[in-house]
Structure formats: structure tokens, C-alpha cells
Amino acid sequence: MKVKKYDIINEQVLSKVHESGLRVYIMPKKGFGKSYATFATNFGSVDNVFMRNGEKVVLPDGIAHFLEHKVFEEPDYNVFAEFSKLGASANAYTSFDLTTYLFSATDNFYDSLKILLSYVQNPYFTDENVAKEQGIIGQEIGMYDDDPEWNVFFNMLRAMYKKHSINIDIAGSVKSISEITKETLYKCYESFYNPANMVLFVVGDVESDKVWNVVEECIKTAPRPEVEVIREAEPDEINMPTITQNFCVAKPIFCMGFKEKPMDDPVWADAVYTILLEMLFGKSSELYQSLYNEGLINAAFSASYSAGKEYAFVEMSSESDNPEKVRDIILGYVAEIKKNRLLKEDFERIKRALYGKVLRSLNSVDSIANQFISMIMRGGDYPEFAQAINKVTFEDIENLLQSALDETKCVLSVVKATEEGCES
Amino acid sequence: METISLKSGIKLHILPDGKFKNFRVGVYMSTPLTKETAAKNALVARVMRSSTKSFPDKRSINRRLEELYGAALITGAEKRGECHAVKVCIDALADRYIENESILHSVFDLLCEALLYPVFDCVDREKQALIDEIRAAVNDKRSYALKRCIEEMCADEPFGISSHGAEEDVQKLDRDIACEYHAQLIKTAPIDIFVIGAFDREAVETECRRLADALEEREEVYAPTCQMAAPEQVRYVNDKENVTQGKLVIGYRAQINDNSVYPLTVYNAVFGGGTSSKLFNNVREKLSLCYYASSVLYRKKGLIMVQAGIDFDKYQKTLDEIMVQSEDIKAGNIEPEEFEGAVLGIVNGLRSCKDDLGQLMGYYSTQIGEDIIDIDEKIEKILSVKMEQIIDVARQISMDTIYFLSGNGTESDNEG
């Protein structure tokens, strides 16, 4: 196995590519009681149109998530019960860019790993089990429909993106999932759930050869059809500057977003944006203190950066009695700061704080696994993040500030109750 | 974990562990839980995080924490049985990960600042924030129902007092009262300092001795937790609020002592402690009566609290089924999978706890005033519990209070 050392954070990652094309990564953490395994495929909700052996396939909304649910189905055993018997805790999730299957365990790790690799590679879809799932996922969609925070965020994406399929709900709609058949599921599975399109990441007090033995025992090589995901070109401009939806909430909730230009190096992008946003909007910033003291935002307010398959954005969210005023204040503040008002001492201090926080997050196997798998799909190496933060210079941040947070690329999404309140 | 007496009434509990990238220091000052002092403890804890002699506001404290590589300062007032502990806790990056610099001394300086030199000018704002927090308890209906049941069940015992204190007691406080109280706290409360994680052991001991030097000797006395018997007749309490889902909470009294504590821990897991428990599998899965059904053991007080979220009209059926499950255990009807699943669940939780500094701090700090036992030892004790012992302790558990939080007036007919 190849070994890559990260001296600054005192960690290392072992890696090897299986003959099937599966990429395997192992981060040993001696002395940790809990181990974590994630088995992910490079297929998410934004991968909804693709060419397969020369034919164009357009997938119904929500199919990646639907497929995630169905993968657990096995004809002659219950996946969760099997993990329970071994004392492991299993789960899965679908995001914009990928689908992940995982478990954590303090004992019987290798047996649980066998279960993980086996059930994910064994698709079993029938008309009956597809129909059953349509009912269950329909309930799940209903639950999200009732969630004001989920809605304010997705509305923000819809206002920001005209063509990019990030503006489609990950779970789809009741209507779109009613179009899913077992044939579509098999087609999707065969196109994207090939080990050559997948990654296995294991972190914890494990022995790499034992992990590799399980991989050799369980992973089947399969010929992969020629698949190429197609994305429609997304214009630079936003779709619409504001979007409002009525919801039964005590106070209005807003989600404000800035459409950003995707960067080539994902680790670097995360490093520079995280530092910039912490300087401008963090808990020691002028803006945060004044908005908080005036009662315009609550303590939960924070700004974050997200990027993936041909998208990148900054978003910040909070409850507020006056979202439009907050947006105007923030835009004014950003315009002011762009006239070279960034302070180098703030930069130095924020860098130190972030470096410390990133290092401490490396104590959590859950956090490491999920960050690692997300970053590897973006073509980056997560353990290099702490190093990248160190390398960022004040000039890098000043440059980023000039091109980021463009006023013309700003979107405000609000959910609020009607004048009649929650009765209607 | 090693315990060192620094001075009369001031102890250091130290547990170095190099697998972590950081360390956590928790200073706990223990007081008897009383109505008058609960609010004072909660307010003093808030002020310590808001304003000190060298850092007069939150912004300057936050900037200092950022300078210390993103350290975190956490304060609070926590119930431990019928003791109320004011805690000041700091979590910081280990020196080993910082080039050409050591922050350990500065971290302890900041900790001492917050602990010894809070400034009470901000007391009005923090009083309001504390009152907001007390009022917000009603937002999370599930934990509100649990709190209400304990209040009712333990109305004549200190355990029924909230760890924030009551709103009317907070209102009575002002700058002078809070300041005087803080001075008295620092002077008389027994102090336990826990340091866990990656650090230079000698350097930390030196810092802790330095802190102890700034403090006086005091009596090492911790308020005991009283054990009461259940009443002859079960009490029923019903609150009505604007809720869509009913919250049922049942309080039981158990006989807790050195011999029964581990069997009771396993009993609680078998009864309602997770996905292999009787409540989960029967009340939830088989009968579909609720969205959640679980139980929790308050070890120091010997209470077992069952919680279930149900539709209003399922009250009697749920109550009946919970009692069936409780009687089943007394009759010895425990499946091997239920017993094994319970033990496995507790052991896995304890093993995972060793990977998390916050959980470790929680695990050790609940043992203030007791002989501390390490996680591995606790795991062994859990593994040696026998089925018969569970049935024995089950037979000594009595129902005390049934609490139900239901909706106002008629059934709600919300669309969504």
C-alpha cells in the first residue's frame, strides 16, 4: 500500500487501487475505540443527465436518493439487524455530488466491513419493493416540506441557479418518484455503482492488511458501460434576486447567498473562503457584533462556503424580523471592506483559530470520514487542509475579497408567516 | 485517572492521553442544590463567560480565544444528584501541534481570569439572557415534559429544582448580590479540576498548583443525594399546552446502592435504552403507538424516567403496554437478544466515550465526591451483571408519578 504522511497533523493515509478500480484509503488512528467506514459512489442528485453507450438518459428527480434507500434491500436478510448483532451502527446519505454508505463500530469491525461491501454490491429491486418505497419516501418528502429551514435553503438555490441541477430537491417530489421503476434503478445502478466509480475510506485503530483482505474477498470486478455525465452550461448571472415563501414560523428565517466562481483546487478554495468568511462574518467580527446587538440576527448566524460539481456558493442564514435590512447592511459592509479595509491582525488571528479548530476536528472519526470522502470526490486530499490554511497569505485573502461576494450575484430567500399568522 | 490533593478541598484529577490533538481543563465548584443558590450559580456562570478584568466584553474574550488557536471557553451550572456544580472549562490545541510556541500557560491564565476575576457590570444583560433561556425550555416539548415530571415528583426534594434556577429567583438578583456570591463561592466551595487529553503532565500539574495557591483551603464536603420512597398512591399530573403530539413521562423510584447500580444500569438498557430494548420493540415497533419510547436512569438519585411521544388518544394503551413490559421484566421474561443487545449497547457507548474529550469530561465529572472508576473498570462491571440480578433490582422499583402533556381543548386538526 502507498503511504502518505502528513507531518503537521501527525497522521498518515495508506492507499491502494483494487483491480476493479475501487480506490481504498485507510487512516490508522491508534488508541481510538471507534472505527468508521464509508463506501461511496461518485453519483449524487446533480448527476441527472448522462450519455450511456451513445444514448442520452434523463433521470427522474430524486432517483439517487431513491436508489440509496433501495440498496439496503436484500432478499434473504435484514441489513440493519445484521449490523446490530455485531454492535455496529449503520447509515447512508445522498448529497448533491455523491451517495455514501457507512457504519461505525467499537468491535467486530472486519465482519461489519464485509456486510457493508456485500450489501452495497448486491442490488435487489422488484416492482413491489419499489412501490413500497414510493410510499415511505413520499412521507419523508412531506417531512421536508414542513421544514422551514430546508425550504429557505433550497429556495435560495433555485433563485441562484437557472440551469444547474443543484436547484432540484435531492429527494425529488412525490410526482417525480412515482415515475421510478425497477428498470430505471437497475440502469442507474449499473452505470454508477461500479467499483471503478467508488471509494472506500476507513478510519480508526485498524490493521490495513486485514482491511485489504476484506476488500479482496468482497469486491467484484464488473465491466462498466461507457458513461458520461452531461451538464448544461450555467450562466454567470443569478436566476432572481429575491424569493419568499409563506410558512408557519414564529420569526422570519432568511438564507442569503452569493454565487461564486468554482475554483480548480478544492482544498485551496475551502481554505481561502473559510478564512475570508470567518474574518468578515465570524463571532469576533464587527458585523456580527453590531447585527447581534441590534437584535437583527440570532446567535446561530454564520457564513459558509460550499462547492462541488461545477457549482460554488457562499450562504448565511438566521432568524430575523427584518431580513431585507440585514441583506442591505451586509451588502453595504462588504462594499466598504472591499475598499481595502481588511486588517492584517484579524487575518493572522483568524488563521490561528482555524488551524486549531481543524486540528481538533481530527479527533472525530465521524468528521474525518465524511470530510475525506467529500473532498476526494472533488479531486482533493482532505488531510492537506490544515497545511493549506497555513500557506494562505494576506494577499491571497485581499485578492479573493475583490472577486468574491459580488453584489450582482446576491440572492435573498425568506420564509415567513402571512399577516394572519399560523391559523390559516 | 489519577487524583492529587492540591490543598484541603481542592483536588486535581489528571488523565493524559496522547491520541488527542487537544486537551480540556474543567474546574468544578460544588454547592448543595437549593432554590436560593441555583439561580445565583447559573447567573455567575454566565457572567464568567461574558466579562472579566482583562477582557471586559464577549468580543475581547472571543478575540483572545482566537489568538489561542481557536480555544473554546465554556461555563455553566450543572446538576449532579442534589449537588449543583458551577463549571469553567477550556478546550485548547496541544502544544505539540504548535511550532515555536507554547500556549499552555496562557490557556491557564485565561481560565483563571474567568474563574477568579469576572466583572459584574454586565449582570442586567446576562439576567435577561438567563430568563430567556428559562422561558425557552417550553420550546422543546419533549425535554420540557421530562423536566415537569421531575419537578412534580421531587417537589419536596432538592432534585426537583432546575439547574437554571427559577425565573422569580433570577429577578431578585443584582450586581452586588451576584458579586458577593461569587466571592463566597470561590472561597468555600470544594473544587475539582479535571485535565484530560494531550498535554505535558508536569507543566499542567505546575499550572494547577499555581491556581490552587491563589485559593484558600476549604472543607471537602459534598451535599449527599437523598433517596425517597415512592408514595403509597401513584400521582397523576396533566399539563395542557399548544402541542400536536402528547408527551408521556413516567417516574419510577429504584433502590440505588453500590450493589444495585450496575444491574440497574443494565435493567434500564433492557427496559428502554435503545433499539434492542423492550419499550422500543413493543411500544414503538410492534404496536406503533409512538414516535419514540425510551427510559433513562438518573444514577445518583435512583430515578428511572420513561418518555414516550404519542397521539393523545393513545394515552391509556401506551401506559398499559409500558406497565406490561415493566411487569415482564419482574417476572423474568427477558429474551437473550434483549439482554445481550442491552449490554452490547452500553459497552459500545462507553468505548466510544473514550474517543471524545467532551464525553470523557462528562463521564468523570459526574463522579465528583465519589471514588472515581475508569471506563475499562466500568465496562468489566457491566459485563459481569447476571440476568437474575436484573430481575432482583426490577422487583424493587416502584412507580411514583405519571405525567402527561396534552393539547389545549379539542384534538388538533392541523393539515400539516
Summarize the structure.
Chain A is of the alpha+beta class and 424 residues long. In chain A, 41% of the residues lie in helices and 21% in strands.
Explain what this protein looks like in three dimensions.
The complex is a heterodimer of chains A (424) and B (416). Chain A is built from 15 helices and 15 strands. Chain A has helices spanning 63-71, 79-85, 109-120, 127-145, 148-160, 174-178, 182-192, 208-218, 266-281, 286-293, 323-338, 344-361, 365-377, 385-391, 394-403; strands at residues 2-6, 11-17, 23-28, 35-41, 49-52, 55-58, 89-94, 99-105, 198-204, 227-229, 242-246, 253-259, 302-308, 311-319, 410-416. In chain A, the strands form 3 sheets. In chain A, strands 1-2-3-9-4-8-7 form a 7-stranded mixed β-sheet, sandwiched between helices. Chain A starts with a strand and ends in an 8-residue tail after the last strand. With 416 residues, chain B is of the alpha+beta class. Chain B contains 15 helices and 11 strands. Classes of the chains: A alpha+beta (424), B alpha+beta (416). Chain A binds chain B through residues 8-10, 29-34, 84, 87, 89, 104-107, 142, 145-146, 283-284, 289, 349-350, 352-357, 359-360, 362-365, and chain B through 17-22, 59, 62-63, 65-71, 91-93, 96-97, 275-276, 341, 344-345, 347-348, 351-352, 354-357, 416.
